[in-house]
Amino acid sequence: MANLHHMRQNFRADYEYTVDEDAAIIAIVDLDLGNKSVTNDMENVLGDIKRELGTLAGFSVIYKDSLGRWDGVRLDEKGTVHFYGLGESEPEKAAKRLLHPCP
User: Fold this and answer.
1) Which of 41, 63, 77, 85 is the most exposed place for a label (fewest CB within 10 A)?
2) pTM of the model
3) Most confident among 41-50, 69-78, 94-103 (mean pLDDT)
4) CB atoms within 10 A of CB 91
5) Residue 94, number of CB atoms within 10 A of its CB
6) Mean pLDDT of the chain
7) By the 8 A CB rule, do 4 and 20 touch?
8) CA-CA distance, 60 to 25, in Å (whole number)?
9) According to the 3-state scheme, what is the secondary structure of 3-69?
């Protein structure tokens, strides 16, 4: 598993993420440091990750919100972000319920 971490300041979400290339899963964790939440800044968060990785295609995305719940995120072909509830407390359980890889 690749351990890539990223944090943003100045009114952007503070987060870190990991990439499991074998399972094709990106797991984002909201660090909840007082700036924007990952949920409210997801377009920028995914944009940052895409710039670092080169693509999101083929990856499924889960994220842990500031309340500690893991949910799913998907991008459609137009790049619109869609959220879907998984409501899991553990990333392994959330990963098993993922629906869509990014196009």
Assistant:
1) 77
2) 0.86
3) 41-50
4) 18
5) 22
6) 86
7) no
8) 5
9) CCCCCCCCCCCCEEEEEECCCCEEEEEECCCCCCCCHHHHHHHHHHHHHHHCCCECCEEEEECCCCC
Structure tokens at 88: 């899991």
3-state secondary structure of 94: helix
Q: Which residue shows structure tokens 């499924």?
A: 60
pLDDT at 102 over 80: no
In this structure, the number of other CB atoms found within 10 A of the CB of residue 7 comes to: 12
Q: Residue 35 CA to chain centroid, in angstroms?
A: 17
CA distance 64 to 45: 13
